[in-house]
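Marked as duplicate of an earlier ticket. Keeping the data here for the record.
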Amino acid sequence: MSVGGQSMYLSNDWYIEAAADSRRRDSSSSTFLDILTSRYHATMPYSAARELAESKVDRYLKVNDLRECPDLIRDHLIIWGIRKEGDRSTLLPPEIRLFNARYATHLVKTAREKAEREESARIAIQRREGAERAAYQAWLMKDMREWGRENGHFVGTRGRIPRKVVDAYRKAKGI
């Protein structure tokens, strides 16, 4: 349906913006959030629809709160080579649109790099712990062989150490 060439249908984006404005003013008001939830509820369970609606409003608030941090936007535009170092002039709408388009990608990339660093650190710790365990096992086998020979047991220089030698060693050392 249209009136004067304009659609009467309001998009989800409009309801997201209205719910965000409503949340900024009064956190208890949720009329627009309820309408948005009911729109999503047509294709998914209510709890998932409510969660999706709230996440979209939260994301909208984050992006628009960034507009209130012009220094952050300027710094990223300098990093990306859009602005020159020291340029503190007023932000232009195309720069804000570019920032909004790139910043989400930047956050994803930063999160991925952080996860990769954490994974590398975890793998390095596992390798170090594995090397320490291997060194300890090598020392323990060497000590068992020496102890076994000193105490009259037949122990080869390589291969498996007999169970009776291992048991006697543990009993003697209190392990």
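See parent ticket for discussion. The two ends are 84 Å apart (CA to CA).
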